[in-house]
Write a structure and sequence with these properties.
Number of domains of chain B: 1
Keywords (chain B): Cell inner membrane, Cell membrane, Cytochrome c-type biogenesis, Membrane, Transmembrane, Transmembrane helix, Transport
Radius of gyration of chain A: 18 Å
CATH superfamily of the largest domain in chain A: P-loop containing nucleotide triphosphate hydrolases
Number of helices of chain B: 10
CATH architecture of the largest domain in chain A: 3-Layer(aba) Sandwich
Largest sheet of chain A: 5 strands, parallel
Shape of chain A: globular
Order of helices and strands of chain A: EEEHEEHHHEHEEH
Number of domains of chain A: 2
Function (chain B): Required for the export of heme to the periplasm for the biogenesis of c-type cytochromes.
Distance between the termini of chain A: 47 Å
Membrane topology (chain B): Multi-pass membrane protein
Number of strands of chain A: 8
Largest interface: A-B, 29 and 26 residues
Number of helices of chain A: 6
Oligomer: heterodimer
Structural class of chain B: mainly alpha
Radius of gyration of chain B: 18 Å
Subcellular location (chain B): Cell inner membrane
CATH class of the largest domain in chain A: Alpha Beta
Structural class of chain A: alpha/beta
Largest sheet of chain B: none
Helix content of chain B: over 70%
Protein name (chain B): Heme exporter protein B
Order of helices and strands of chain B: HHHHHHHHHH
Chain lengths: 209, 222
């Protein structure tokens, strides 16, 4: 399958964040989105996750049958999507049922991020890095082909970053796709890089003159 | 898909029951409101019995409103809404299940608890039964009308007031027919069944229209 983004533009409350953004991503490929703070990395991921409408352009999936992109993506964003009152295991079991295409069990997924001991703890008791790891464990409970990751390494220690790199390389080797917005290197060799620059606006040009 | 919806129902019921959940909030508010009314009105049993159904219904409307702003906002805040939007089930079904879970933890306890509170305001046994029955079939309308407001205000930090202002006028027909059905059961000129059937119709209508509207609001809300 292929994801094709065509001339995407994003506007948030009257401000044009980016425009004319195009890329194509096929099986086994990764795209690393970079850019300074506020450049629109998260907005791009929100558009791909169908949580934000693009001002112009479109995103389409080719060769994936009937399934829309929303049923192919596994999104781990800034907000970890975990319920504090539920245990790590309950959170993952819920994600597994909601996302479908069941893969690892919650226990196995937690073992993969090194948190099997925290399975029965409410997520509220976990540290920021541990929460992040439970959020990332969601990638393993469902065999969805497209991983959308927003700053996946934030709050992770070096060992966890290493483990995430391994998991991402495994996913690509298995024919998956990854789109990640990040500042830190992810250790993905051969990943395409998309740098979002701020478009030159007519208003800005006028101010500069 | 059924598995996903069942998991959502179980999760929402669990969350309502855990510490910090909204499970007891509506019921607690309902009980407190109805309990203080006799103190404010004084021991005039005839007066209490006459306005009793109206008091219970008013309290039910307010008790439903009080926790409603968290229906989608809680999921929006922690990012769970992204997960729900990516579910294999259509968003409309997700909204129905969330509304149903909310009703199970708010509307249903109110209806079940109403007969006991009826004792405090000197309701006759028939009136208790009638109020309970009208609340049972009428509270789904309150939940699903409110769900539209909850979806519209999901991304707002302090959406509670706006939510109430938006949905309270839409809840008025339900209130009118709920109280008139309860009153009709204890005498009066109209038969009980007429307003009762309209109340059921309002609930069914609210479930359908409210679900579609709330799903549309969530899709356009981000």
């Amino acid at each position: 399958m292929r994801i094709v983004a065509d001339n995407l533009a994003c506007r948030r409350s009257e401000r044009l964040i980016f425009a004319n953004l195009s890329f194509t991503l096929a099986d086994g490929q990764a795209l690393v989105v970079t850019g300074r703070n506020g450049a629109g990395k998260s907005s791009l991921l929100a558009i791909l996750a169908a949580r934000l409408r693009p001002e112009a352009g479109n995103v389409r999936v080719e060769g994936a049958g009937e399934a829309p992109l929303t049923e192919l993506v596994n999104f781990v964003g800034h907000r970890d999507g975990l319920k504090s009152a539920l245990t790590a295991e309950e959170n993952l079991a819920f994600a597994r049922a909601i996302l479908g295409r069941a893969a690892l069990t919650p226990k196995e997924a937690l073992a993969r991020v090194g948190l099997e001991h925290a399975a029965r703890l409410p997520v509220a008791y976990l540290s920021a890095g541990q929460r992040r790891r439970v959020g990332l464990a969601r990638l393993f409970v469902s065999a969805r082909p497209v991983w959308l990751l927003d700053e996946p390494t934030s709050a992770l220690d070096a060992a966890s970053q290493e483990a995430l790199g391994v998991a991402m390389r495994d996913h690509l080797a298995a024919g998956g796709l990854i789109i990640a917005a990040t500042h830190a290197p992810l250790g993905l060799d051969g990943a395409a890089t998309l740098r979002i620059e701020r478009p030159v606006l007519a208003a800005d040009a006028g101010e500069a003159a | 898909m059924t598995r996903a919806l069942a998991a959502l129902l179980v999760r929402d019921l669990k969350l309502a029951g855990r510490i910090g959940g909204s499970g007891a909030l509506g019921l607690g508010f309902f009980v407190m409101l109805v309990t203080v009314v006799p103190f404010a009105l004084g021991p005039d049993l005839n007066l209490l019995a006459r306005i009793g159904p109206a008091i219970l219904w008013l309290a039910a409307v307010l008790a439903t409103l009080i926790g409603l702003d968290r229906l989608f906002q809680a999921d929006e805040e922690d990012g769970s809404l992204d997960l729900l939007m990516h579910a294999e089930a259509p968003l409309e079904l997700i909204v129905v299940v969330k509304g149903f879970a909310h009703w199970l933890t708010t509307g249903l306890p109110l209806a079940l608890c109403a007969p006991f509170l009826g004792l405090l305001i000197a309701l006759t046994p028939e009136a208790m039964l009638a109020v309970s029955a009208t609340l049972l079939v009428g509270t789904p309308a309150l939940t699903f009308i409110g769900g539209v407001g909850a979806a519209l205000t999901a991304t707002m930090r302090r959406g509670g007031l706006l939510l109430s202002v938006l949905v309270l006028p839409l809840m008025v027909p339900t209130l009118i027919f709920g109280v008139s059905a309860a009153n009709a059961a204890t005498g009066g000129t109209i038969p009980f069944l007429t307003p009762f059937l309209i109340l059921i119709a309002l609930s069914l209508l609210a479930i359908v229209i409210g679900t579609v509207a709330a799903a549309a609001a969530l899709r356009h809300g981000s």
